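MODEL INPUT / OUTPUT PAIR
PAIR INDEX: 1
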Amino acid sequence: MMSKKIAVVVTDLVEDIEFTSPKDAYVEAGHTVETISYKKGSIEGKQGASFDIDKTIDDVKASDYDALLIPGGFSPDLLRADEEGRFGQFTKQFVEAGKPVFAICHGPQLLIDTDLLEGKKLTSFISVRKDLENAGANVVDESVVVDSNIVTSRTPDDLEDFNRESLALL
């Protein structure tokens, strides 16, 4: 198996386990994970853990990576608030290139900003589903959904399925 380089877009109030569980699974499988946010330094998770940031969104391009992870919590909503839309554009480049994108819980919110959800089968945390439908997605209530290169899940309870399907796509 070839080692892949995975980008994680994340900021404060990320759901800790939705970041650490997939990251640990990817690293254990031999992949490299880099965290990307507004600024270097560290961020604070929803449960209070501190996470180091490797690069800023201005330092990276999608072509540097093989896959993208979007953990949930309040982080995706805060990333969408970027006035220049850089995180949405970054995500869009992965979808357009057919690269794997893994989004759990509130993570699919960032997918809305790609304007590429028409006809895609997705799932998410319940409060995000209507927004995904409005963006043209076919939304279902399942622990994990794989639509071509996009893997989505609903909650931390789905992490086992989410990690399994994400690793299978890598």
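PAIR INDEX: 2
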Amino acid sequence: MALMIVGHPDLANSVANKTIVENLKQKTNDLEIRHIQKLYPDYQINIKEEQQALLRHQSIILQYPMYWYNMPAIQKIWFDHVFTYQFAYGSQGNKLKNKQLLVSLTIGQTEDNFIQQDGNSIIDNLLLPVQKSAQYAQMKYLDPVILYGISAVTGHTKSETVEKALQHSQKLFQAIQKLESNISLSN
């Protein structure tokens, strides 16, 4: 069973993230979903509870929208408080060792806005802090699943955004199934 940490600060008014989360809930009962903004509207993260959730699972999915080329504040606070010394790192901080971390990210802008003149994407650079944090915690950082171009300024209708989010959710579901089957095979 996988764990999804939803870091959208206003999921109720989201189109893409809300669709992704709700669609995954319908597709599988084997996914624990923790909407951290709903759990901690005061930003007072229950560290022990969140660490226990991480310990229950081999696969962790971070689901959030990109905000100003970064993760929302609640997601960053969650990282800062939960990935603690002697839990995620340190001489005895191996509790996340070999767990898999998958980022599922929604981005309002089109993918073209992330391509440099040399043709390379900057998205890997933007996700480098998450990747390095995962590696520091001895986790396996997996290639992210990214949904671009879902804001109203891209000209997409709400129904088009929902359709794109459903397609993203299907990709994510397949990635989760693959992760879980790999874990089953290695046990």
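PAIR 2 NOTE: The chain has one domain: 2-186.
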